[in-house]
Amino acid sequence: MRIKTIIFQIICLLVTVTASAQTFTLQGRVTDENNDPIEFASVSCLKQGKMTMTSLKGEYSMQLHSADSVVIKFSMIGYKAKTRILRRPRGKQTLQIVLHSDENQLGEVTITGKKIETGQMEDISKDHLKSLPSASGNAVEELIQSQAGVSTHSELSSQYNVRGGSFDENSVYIDNVEIYRPFLVRSGQQEGISVINPDMVEKISFSTGGYEARYGDKMSSALNIKYRKPKKFEATASASMLGASAFVGVSNKKVSWSNGFRYKTTKHLLGSMDTKGEYSPTFIDYQTYLTYTPNKRWEIKLLGNISDNHYNFTPEDRETKFGTMENVKAFQVYFDGQEKDVFRTFFGAVGITRNFGEKTSLSLIASAFNTREQEKYDIQGQYWLTQTETSENLGVGTYFQHARNYLKAHVESAKLLFKTKYKKHDIEGAFTFKKEKITENSVEYEMRDSSNYSVPHTGKDLYMIYSMRAKNVLDANRIEAYIQDAFRFTSNNEKTLYTLNYGVRLSHWSYTKETIVSPRVSLGIIPAFNENITMRFATGLYYQAPFFKELRDTTTQNGITYASLNSKAKSQRSIHFIAGFDYRFRMNNRSFKFTAEAYYKALGNLVPYSVNNVKVVYYGSNESSGHAAGIDLKLYGEFVPGTDSWLSLSLMNTSMKLNGKSIPLPTDQRYAINMFFTDYFPGTDRWKMSLKLALADGLPFSAPHQELESNVFRAPAYKRADIGLSYRLLNNEGKQRKHIQLRNVWLGAECLNLFGINNVNSYYWITDVTGGQYAVPNYLTGRQINFRVTVDF
């Protein structure tokens, strides 16, 4: 019996040794050339389907099965991947890996959904900018408009609403310099070219709320654009029926220089609208971005932009049918007159950076913005409103619209920016001085004559239905400052990762003599129990200091409205409460990311406003309070291998109290669904398809020149589908080139508004002699085919 017992114990021992020999532990550290840890680097064994990420210290550990050879891959965006082969590994194996920078990859690739994000700024891939089917030509803004929590109701506009906020509540930065938009634009078709040049973009970061103290005094969102520095000669040329663009970049060891030129015309697109006539829009833009680095201690940057936008329009006639299947009305107009608008903008910035070692820098950034805007139109329309079933005339009359609006604006600023890294802290602070001067001289009026009666009339006096005059000068100084810290630390045996961002922002404006203080804090957590989960929490006080539009208060005397500036207006206030959840997973060996974010914004000191097309008209005084609450959901990933697509759903509720009555905000969009889908034809990467879908709830509205409390109507939902098909005619990507030659040639075709849906942009109101009003919808663009060719050198 003793011999059998010994044999049994030996067999058990052999089985145990064999079992233990089948697995081993791989551990180590991943660093860069300077021996600094690389966090969130990927360590994977593809054959065994296992992967892990490095910690904040660059350390990793994973359990693997032993074999004759085990292949381990180390990779991180911006670094050259490394592969190591282990021969019959046993027990504990230690690998210390050094990854070297991949300059080409770092300068050209930004991947969304694969980088672990713990803050409130989301990196959005720029890879879709060239293939995105676009009506406005402003590809970056159209990419933003398709994100969760963002909406727009006009394909002609680059402006967007974020979580119930107006168009003016979104701050935009290019390389730490705040960007301004034209003031007098009232419709998307006048808007022209956005200041952001898609050909020059390296990185897009966007936040729908809870963003850091570094981003200025706006209540809704922050968009941060980083322009790229070419590493070698690059050139791109593109042309379509809607315009053309060209980009040239050159560089050497010390100098990097990018130049972008864009031309846009929406003549053919506007021709698909109900109002026919001679559209003559011409939009031209030139940008330059120069970086000079004489040595490691100094860097000089120069950014310049010239934009010249002309919108000329001579309307001829219009016929619009609206109503239901049983009750169809026809609105027909014959026009006289024309509209001539000019929006000319100059912008420049220069930055000088002194680097004190690798972790500390001090920058001085000076910028200047100048805009000259002119809006002139005299348009007379003779109209008939009829009931199509009975041919009954519901309204016959004439209207005349006149405007002579001129505006000049100058904003100069100087910013001192300090950055440093100390252990686990990224500290940043800045002080900014701005000088602002705006001069406005505006005259507008509208006359309506319905059935031989001027509207409105009292029986004794005749008045214009609308008449406005404004002559204002704003000359003021603004001081801004902020300091913030991003603190990254671990707990639970360094398995749970935390990112704490906290800071405070201060601003003072000499015109209203108001000082505002905005504390902000956010926390991101990657828990130890699942490294594929990120939990995010953010709160903060966000003031929107009045600028020009918010100050314009109006008074009416003898039927004439006078607009003046209210120096007693206070900053609008929004307190953000945000809870977010990110879950990263793989399905069918492809990467996906699901994001859910709930928010509540407590709004105070609101300046009520109305929205007509893309023009926001404020009351000029703080008269209300309210809230915006909702949830945003987004699924992002490789629905098709090698391509990125996403689907988002947003639900929202808003309310404001005005004159004792609770009403929705003018931008109350109860639901929105956006989808962007890309695909390659089976068996080839030459054919690529991009599909963009949008379904958004209509906004509340009322008859013009009335109080917001009368917003009892709601426009129909905005529904649109755009599809683009691209064919790669030539592909020399990755091949060594001794001389300048073609790298890529893409041929593209787009069908804009694929289903020909008549989306309502605004309404024109017809008044008869009895005071009855009819809302005639102004439809947006119809179906349009566009062809495009893109050449890369």
Give the name of the CATH superfamily of the largest domain. TonB-dependent receptor, beta-barrel domain
Q: Main beta sheet: strand number and arrangement?
A: 22 strands, antiparallel, barrel
β-sheet strand percentage: over 45%
Instruction: Provide the residue-averaged pLDDT.
Output: 87
- Indicate the percent of residues in helices: under 10%
Alpha-beta classification:
mainly beta
Shape: globular
Based on DSSP secondary structure assignment, what is the total number of beta strands? 46
How does this model look, in words?
- The protein is 5% helix and 60% strand.
- The chain is mainly beta.
- It has a 22-stranded antiparallel β-barrel. A 5-stranded mixed sheet has the order 8-13-14-11-12, covered by helices on one side. Strands 3-2-5-6 form a 4-stranded antiparallel sheet, with no helix packed on it.
- The longest helix has 20 residues, at 2-21.
List the helices and strands and how they pair.
Elements: H1 2-21, E1 23-31, E2 42-45, E3 50-53, E4 59-65, E5 69-75, E6 82-87, E7 91-98, H2 103-108, E8 122-124, H3 139-145, E9 150-151, E10 161-162, E11 170-174, E12 177-178, E13 201-207, E14 221-227, E15 234-240, E16 243-251, E17 255-264, H4 267-270, E18 275-292, E19 298-323, E20 328-355, E21 360-387, E22 392-422, E23 425-450, E24 453-455, E25 466-491, E26 496-509, E27 514-526, E28 533-544, E29 552-557, E30 560-565, E31 572-587, E32 590-606, E33 609-612, E34 615-618, E35 624-637, E36 645-658, E37 661-663, E38 671-680, E39 687-696, E40 700-701, E41 713-714, E42 718-731, E43 744-752, E44 760-767, E45 773-779, E46 784-792
Parallel strand pairs: 1-7, 11-14, 25-30
Antiparallel strand pairs: 1-4, 2-3, 2-5, 5-6, 8-13, 9-10, 11-12, 13-14, 15-16, 15-46, 16-17, 17-18, 18-19, 19-20, 20-21, 21-22, 22-23, 23-24, 23-25, 25-26, 26-27, 27-28, 28-31, 29-30, 31-32, 32-35, 33-34, 35-36, 36-37, 36-38, 38-39, 39-42, 40-41, 42-43, 43-46, 44-45
